[in-house]
Write a structure and sequence with these properties.
heterodimer, A: 223 residues, alpha/beta, Rossmann fold, 2 domains, 6-stranded mixed sheet, globular, B: 283 residues, mainly alpha, ABC transporter involved in vitamin B12 uptake, BtuC, 13 helices, binds adenosine-5'-diphosphate, binds magnesium ion
Amino acid sequence: MALLKCTDLTLGYENIVLTEHLDFEVNAGEYWCITGENGTGKSTFMKTILGLRKPLAGTISYGDGLEKNKIGYLPQQTQLQKDFPASVTEVVISGFQGKTGLRPFYTKEEKAGALKNMERLGIEDLSKRCYRELSGGQQQRVLLARALCATGKILLLDEPVTGLDPKATEELYELIKKLNREDKITIIMITHDVEAPRKYATHVMNFGEKITKEEISSGRYMV
Amino acid sequence: MADTWSKFIEYLQIPFVRYALIVGVLIALCASLLGVTLVLKRFSFIGDGLSHVAFGAISVATVIGLSNDTLFTMGVTVLCAILILGGSRYTKIKGDASVAMISVSALAMGYLLMNVFPTSGNVSGDVCSTLFGSALILTLSKEDVILCIAVSVVVVLLFLFFYNKLFAVTFDGDFARATGTKADIYNLIIAAIIAVIVVLAMNLVGSLLISALVVFPAMSAMRVFKSFRSVTICSAVISVLCALTGMVIAIVAGTPVGSTIVVTDIAVFVIFSIAGKITGRTV
Ligand SMILES: Nc1ncnc2c1ncn2[C@@H]1O[C@H](COP(=O)(O)OP(=O)(O)O)[C@@H](O)[C@H]1O
Ligand SMILES: [Mg+2]
């Protein structure tokens, strides 16, 4: 059964339709890259999968043990986060918030989990640092660690490398690849990069006049 | 100096003064708690906006001769707070504009009502004390004080209970929502709490200065501290100390209570800004 299945999806807002008749399936372990010009509805698509917006028509179903609230998300950065006083630990552990229900505090396991995810991304040394004083690449790792707290199965990344220098970009891509190949976390990533899809993805979906989908064999060296 | 001190001790014997100090400290504490959240959500002026709504509501209550105007005022203010904070995600009118529209309308209508149906001879005196706070803080009854203590305890408990959720919702609402946090409910809670605080605080500093209580301690703390927890704790401490200092000065020197507290807050902000510049980065 597919992790994520969209059937005859129509995306858009009250006054505009961005995409119609979108059908596709994402299976566990796949690495999808979503490309396309600005304003073609890539972020909207992602927000719809996350349940932040309702599709204008069509259905999205979650399977293979995936629940709607267990999706990890790395949003396009907002202005708000840029001046927020928060330590790295505070940001990372907030990834567990959705699981706490009415419980006001984080459990020992959650604190340990946050630490583990920071180690996974090599940012445990930054744990006491202030989030807004980190470099762009470090900030993205922090948000990635937070997303990992929310999920063990699938990550949705909205332009994770935009604004990063080539070295930080490369490092972030390698980290994401490692999460995909070693930890078997399914990836859906929006990117403007032309190389990344060829290098890492198993599937590419291009938003534009028409949506095109493509399976990339070179990227398919997973078990 | 010894003179001033003995004068102060003397004042402390008066129950009204003690009441005022208790109420002032509690209100300052409550107002500071949500400061960081409101500043970062670009709702710095919600204190002003809501207090103008409360002003309008009080005018209406007075004109139609309601006996229990505090409850009425709280109700109306909470409702408007929910409209402003809760609606901003759905409506086309964004934060600052909706605050401005609602607050100015309420202010204008309240003032108009008070002029058309004057209930006391001194309309401009009434308006002035509502805007800048009155000596009313010194005429609190025991019941007022008990109400204030009760409400403050509830506000502080709610804040502690929802602290981690507030952080998640303020830092990144979309992420929180996507991972199953009921962000809309917490935004409603924020709105209700801030409305209650505003109505309480109107007596203390008046509606023009409420924003100062909300914004200054948070801004001062953010100059020096860099984590959400340390900023929150620091702004609560700053707010309480400024309120105490301000009130003591006001009582001893006979200056207006509200403005004196606000000036104290401004002074602390200046000090913290300089301290932040000098120390550079701290945690
Ligand atoms: N809240 C909204 N209401 C109405 N239209 C919107 C809203 N958000 C985005 N849009 C429009 O939808 C289109 C697609 O936006 P988006 O999904 O962010 O594109 P992309 O991420 O591909 O650059 C844009 O034309 C944008 O103007
Ligand atoms: Mg986008």
